[in-house]
Amino acid sequence: MEQPPRPPRQRREPEVPEAPVALDERGTALSALIRDVLKEFEVEVGAAVDEVVVTVKPEDVSAICRIAKDDPSLDFKYLRCLSVVDYIETLEVNYHLFSLDKRHKAVLKASVPTEEPHVPSVISVWRGADWFEREGHDLFGVVFDGHPNLTPLLLYEGFEGFPGRKSFPFHEYDEW
Amino acid sequence: MQVQQQARTADTIDLMINMGPQHPSTHGVFRVVIWVDGERIVKAEPHIGYLHRGSEKLCEGELYSQVITLFDRLDYVANLNCELAFCLAVEKLMALEVPDRASYIRVILCELNRIASHMLFYGVYGLDVGAMTPILYGFRERERIQGLFESVTGARMMHNFIRVGGVKEDLRDDFEPRMAVLLEELKQGIEECDDLLSQNEMFLARTKGIGTIGPTEAIDFGVTGPSLRASGVLEDVRISEPYSIYERFDFGVPVGTYGDCWDRYYVRVEEMRQSLKIIEQAMAQMEPGPVAANVRRIARPPKGEVYVRTESPRGDFGVFLVSDGSDKPYRLKVRAPSFANLQALQYLLRDAYVADAVVILGSIDIILGEVDR
Amino acid sequence: MTVVQGIYYALGALALFVFLSFMVLVLTWVERKALARIQMRMGPMRVGFHGTLQPLADAMKLVLKEDILPSWADRRVYWLAPLAVFIPSLLLWAVIPVGRDLVLANLELGLFYIVAISVLTVMGLLMAGWGSANKYAMLGGLRAAGQLVSYEIPFIMAILAVAMLVQSLNLETIVDGQRNFAYILVQPLGLFIFLTAGLAELGRTPFDIHHAESELVGGPFIEYSGAHWAVFFLAEYINTFTIGALTVLLFLGGWRWPAMPFDGFAHSTLSVIWFLAKTYAVILFIFWIRGTYPRLRIDQLMAFGWKLLVPLSFVNIVITGIVLFYGWPLWTLTLISLVLLGATFYAISRHQGTRLERMTVTVHSFRGTRSEPPVVQPQPEAALED
Known about the structure:
The complex is a heterotrimer of chains A (176), B (373) and C (386). With 176 residues, chain A is α/β, with parallel strands linked by helices. Chain A has three helices and seven strands, in the order αββαββββαβ. Chain A has a domain at 25-115: Beta Polymerase, domain 2 (2-Layer Sandwich). Helix content of chain A is 20%, strand content 26%. In chain A, the strands form two sheets. In chain A, strands 1-2-5-4-3 form a five-stranded mixed beta sheet, covered by helices on one side. Chain A has a two-stranded parallel ribbon with strand order 6-7. Chain B is globular, with a radius of gyration of 22 Å. Chain B starts with a helix and ends with a helix. Helix content of chain B is 50%, strand content 15%. Chain B has helices at residues 2-9, 55-59, 64-72, 79-94, 100-129, 134-153, 175-197, 201-207, 215-221, 226-230, 237-240, 261-285, 337-343, 345-348, 354-363, 368-372; strands spanning 15-19, 31-37, 40-47, 162-163, 166-167, 250-255, 304-312, 315-323, 329-335. Chains B and C meet through strand 1, helix 5, helix 6, helix 8 and strand 6 of B and helix 6, helix 10, helix 11 and strand 1 of C.
């Protein structure tokens, strides 16, 4: 069992093609709108395939989400998905938002360092974020500050390590 | 002093009841701990994770074509809908054009699967309420659909039929006549099922006004699909963000009023009728042609990320796919509708009776394979 | 009591036990077949011709199965509970005539005896619920207590109305009283009350609340297995048979009605057959209900019992009393009874346990991508009750 940890998998050199961006007019209008509404925050508005990508600083997440939900022009009442992606050095928390009335969609991204992943919880904004955040904490170890009950959801109590991360030693992993 | 002591002895504590993970009405290995005061539920605490297989992590180690089999096992009642969601995500990333015939086959099979899934719900819901006949009627219809699936895909449940860029193979020659017969049978079957349970006096008494959730709360909890529509929100991914070829069909979206158990139940019954409508139109519009796009056997989507929503029988089934340009997904996140719908359980169970707990849990129609992934 | 009498009663009790056990075996088979028919299946087909030996195989399995004692169980209570349920159900049959003169003890107070003994079942169920040391069982036992006690009242009152007509509590006299017409013709309301309350006493669908499979997973019987469970099972089916038999004796004319032209031996034989046929018809009706209806909730059951059945059973007695007192022809009773029954059904259909309208789902049709935003319909709050 005393094997040295595997070196993290090298990511492919960027010779591979990037997926083309294909924003529709709703998307372009939305990216302009987001720039306008969130101008007091440090945000970076981009696009990925057909979604507007808003990269924000992790400490702003809660405030921005509150605005995104309450602002009548953004109106992101529905949190489609909350996911965590492991990029070895950083963990990226993705908030997929959708407006049921305006029918536009956006992704909020916040990158946190893997050593100390702290993101404010958005459970006060969308109650539906509850289990998604618990899952993110369970599998990736992201600490959602302000979450009232960050107990294991999918894993059993006492499970050690974060199996969602790329660094989790699956092959050396010994079950009971 | 004396009085105080007596008062203390008369104190009551709430009875904690552990429902599940082995319980006939938890629809799998789901556990909910409820505290009851007499017959009223004071507090409920759901526990999930008994079926956690780490599907998302497993996907990172599989080729794109192999991931489809894992998706079959997420929502094991509506497998084809899951396959479709994944394939759509990959196709969107690769900007692939799917041949028309393949899309039609996908839509027909997915809608059939939706009926099969709702039929299972119908039967199991009957059992939850205490009627034992509906399950056999529901299973009769489901069995017919699965018989057809078997002839098309070669499997009754784990199909692995929808592939990146199209479907595995074209339909058999006998598909059309079989489909015509099946449609007739299903039409009758759905009406029969509707007659048996929907307007039954006791069924109404058990489900009307039970477990209500308003539209704002429902959206807040991320409830989607039939459960959301029952609350009076007209939201269907097939309409608000049409995927595949759903914009070519005429169909209705049933919408409830109160968001109670009966609305959630009947929205599903009505959805089966609408699915039949879609299938009929698709059968009429379908033309011969290729059934798969020209894709490399080992698909390598470009680097990027994509989020695709589809309307699975349980709601908004989302796939978040991050690709690093290799032949395996870098990260795959499944937004399972049951997972989000189940969060609302605690809210729905407020002040309910113990017997209602089962009725409410049944009405949000969870599939644990998808909740725990 | 002489020795001969003692032997007579012992043999009679033995014969009764064998007869009832046989009836239970038949009943389980009939139930499975009837339900299968409703549900478009075959039912048991493998053991014997059309599964006729299936009940025997089941009984054998149950007896040979391991009897499990939960470690926390209150041992004495746990083992006694099946007997406490079974013995009253057997005792009832001491006074129920199966045919003319075919009765162990023809008590003058037969009906009173039945009423008195049938209440004892509650105790057994409570014992089972307590003794199992299981929360589901406890909840089931408490539910059973509440349900059985509250439905005892309409049950007794419905019986009483019949007794008033015959002026006797002797079951044979009651049957003889139906020489010309069965009391179903005079007491349709009484029959409705009796059967409904009887179903609740039995704990059969739609009143199978104390062993609700979907939430309580068998209620008081959850921990029992093997022979002890079989005893519960036996008691339950004997009780079903009892309710069927009582319905026939009290309301359907027993072996008397519509006609019994024979005399002597032919009479006795035919009366048994006639009686059994009628009983099975009633029991099939009970099975039919089981195949069709969902289960009620405990509060709805209580509300139904106390708010509808109990007042109705009193009204039934009052109208019977009035008609008898003033010596009106009995068809007036039929008429009043029918009117009241119709009014009851109307009331039930009007008050559906909920004031919400029946159809609350509307279909919005679309073609393709819709341009207008989805309508969030405001929730009518006034209509939501509770």
